[in-house]
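Sample pair:
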Amino acid sequence: MKEQTEVGKLKEGRYVVVDDEPCRIVSIATSKPGKHGAAKSRIDCVGIFDGVKRSIVQPVSAKTYVPVVERKMAQVISIAGTTVQLMDVKDFEMFELNLTEEQAGSLEPGKEIPYISSLGKKKLE
């Protein structure tokens, strides 16, 4: 899910959709309006799920999308190598995530862990 808002209302630390990827805003630089145009805003952000740096330049009055980022809890069902099977605590949805070696070592079946969900993607916090 995503909502529409004006570029001028965005703040650092919030989220924005760039290239169909939810991103956390790192910095915002706004220029003054010129003789022939409106004020522009340069937004530098980092992808939540892929960690790629992205930036956009748009007029302050332009509309952009803001993703709905949810923080949820899940219970660890099983661990197989670097793949973990999780079950959402509220709606009992089952899903699998790939992990790094460090993350897999700290998990054990039956433990509840937080995760982030946005635009159909999931990631451990």
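The chain has a mean pLDDT of 90.
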